[in-house]
């Protein structure tokens, strides 16, 4: 929800930006689909209510933001994780794409994270969920209290409710929209973090040994395991933690963010800026857990307080000068991008937009923020080939 302190827009507003955070429905309320809902819709669509909430908010901003000192022709949308997925979705939808002047995505896209499913599949899932409540009709569902639906959805699995290829918000698959250049052709700033998933996401509870790592890769990738091991190589046990973390992070969210960045860059005419966020959070203020293991890198969502300038509102971590330095740099990049479509500015390391050569410039955001050429391009080409074989 927008009242969460780390989303507070005051620090951004002090940089001459009108900052606005929206709430929207989630889970069963945001993505529930059902044949009867589809039938009663004038668009013959159901699900995607979370995305429709966002689209309605964007339309409201376009119509009303001038009264708050904003420019309706210069609206940048931004989000992290599911929010980043939503940014990529709004860029693809004809309901929103003409209302967007720029986009920021932090970790995730609809091209592989929380992807949209065929409407018929979503409807079948909705019917299956209704059966857990002994509800055979939409009328029976509507008689149930919201708390009852929420509790049942949590038991059922909240992530089992997906965005849908409904023919309305998404007139066709998002990837097809991006590949045909029908998305909002706006400047994009996007990237992901260095530890989006820990090595346990790949190894499960296995030991940090080369043999366990190789076995895990063979389990996940089967006949393609050797190709994966070439791109994520481990020569000795000491390298397992870092490489397993890299592969787990890419499986979780790195690849889908890369896919979005690449697909947009291939068909858009505006610059695309890619980052890799590396700053681990500092130690916790009072660590009462003797088994606490500090993160190897920047875990999923760790950058939010830095990007929004809200370190002090999070009392869990013992923020130090390095953290405030990184927050200042990241905020200035974001603020400059929102204002001009370009993150560069006085006193900041120069950040070039990416090209299509496979050796793109990537901004590594850390205490020593710097641009480096991409050394991982072949990894994502492989993951892309493997993903394409399953579509």
What key attributes describe this structure?
6-stranded mixed sheet, alpha/beta, globular, 16 helices, single chain, two-stranded parallel ribbon, 391 residues
Describe the structure.
The chain is an alpha/beta fold and 391 residues long. Helices cover 42% and strands 9% of the residues. The protein contains 16 helices and eight strands. The strands form two sheets. Strands 1-2-5-6-7-8 form a six-stranded mixed sheet, with helices on both faces. A two-stranded parallel ribbon has the order 3-4. Helix 11 crosses helix 12. The chain is globular, with a radius of gyration of 22 Å. The mean pLDDT is 95.
**Mean pLDDT over all positions:** 95
For the report, how would you describe the main beta sheet? Answer: 6 strands, mixed
Globally, the shape reads globular
How many distinct helices? 16
Q: What is the count of β-strands?
A: 8
Q: What portion of the residues fall into strands of 2 or more residues? A: 5-15%
Which oligomeric form is depicted? Answer: single chain
Q: How big is the Rg?
A: 22 Å
Low-confidence stretches: none
* Distance linking N and C termini: 33 Å
> What class, by secondary structure content?
alpha/beta
Q: Widest sheet: strand order?
A: 1-2-5-6-7-8
Write the SSE topology.
Layout (H helix, E strand, L loop, with lengths): L9 H4 L13 H5 L3 H6 L8 H16 L11 E5 L1 H11 L9 E5 L10 E2 H14 L5 H5 L3 H11 L7 E2 L8 H6 L8 E6 L6 H4 L6 H12 L3 H7 L8 H28 L4 E6 L26 H5 L12 H20 L20 E5 L4 E4 L3 H12 L3
Parallel strand pairs: 1-2, 2-5, 3-4, 5-6, 6-7
Antiparallel strand pairs: 7-8
Helix pairs in contact: 11-12
């Amino acid at each position: 929800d927008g009242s969460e302190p780390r989303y507070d827009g005051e620090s951004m507003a002090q940089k001459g930006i009108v900052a606005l955070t929206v709430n929207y429905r989630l889970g069963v309320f945001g993505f529930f689909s059902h044949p009867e809902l589809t039938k009663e819709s004038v668009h013959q669509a159901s699900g995607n209510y979370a995305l429709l909430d966002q689209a309605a908010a964007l339309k409201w901003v376009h119509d009303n933001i001038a009264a708050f000192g904003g420019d309706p022709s210069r609206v940048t949308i931004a989000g992290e994780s599911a929010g980043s997925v939503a940014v990529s979705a709004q860029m693809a939808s004809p309901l929103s794409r003409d209302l967007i002047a720029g986009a920021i995505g932090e970790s995730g896209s609809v091209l592989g994270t929380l992807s949209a499913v065929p409407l018929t599949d979503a409807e079948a899932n909705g019917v299956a969920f209704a059966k857990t409540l002994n509800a055979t009709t939409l009328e029976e569902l509507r008689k149930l209290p919201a708390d009852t639906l929420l509790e049942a959805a949590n038991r059922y699995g909240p992530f089992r409710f997906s965005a849908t290829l409904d023919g309305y918000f998404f007139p066709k698959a998002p990837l097809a929209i991006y590949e045909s250049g029908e998305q909002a052709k706006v400047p994009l700033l996007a990237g992901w973090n260095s530890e989006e998933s820990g090595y346990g996401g790949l190894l499960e509870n296995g030991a940090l040994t080369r043999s366990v790592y190789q076995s895990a890769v063979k389990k996940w990738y089967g006949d393609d395991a050797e190709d994966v091991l070439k791109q994520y190589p481990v020569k000795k046990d000491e390298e397992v933690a870092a490489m397993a973390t890299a592969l787990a992070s890419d499986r979780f969210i790195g690849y889908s963010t890369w896919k979005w960045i690449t697909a947009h860059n291939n068909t858009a005419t505006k610059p695309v800026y890619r980052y890799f966020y590396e700053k681990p959070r500092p130690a916790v203020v009072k660590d009462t857990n003797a088994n606490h293991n500090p993160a190897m890198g920047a875990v999923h969502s760790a950058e939010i307080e830095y990007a929004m300038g809200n370190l002090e509102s999070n009392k869990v971590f013992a923020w130090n000068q390095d953290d405030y330095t990184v927050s200042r740099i990241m905020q200035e990049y974001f603020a400059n991008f929102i204002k001009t479509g370009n993150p560069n500015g006085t006193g900041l390391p120069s950040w070039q937009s990416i090209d299509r050569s496979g050796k793109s410039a990537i901004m590594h955001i850390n205490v020593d923020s710097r641009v480096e050429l991409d050394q991982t391009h072949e990894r994502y080409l492989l993951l892309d080939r493997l993903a394409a074989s399953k579509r």
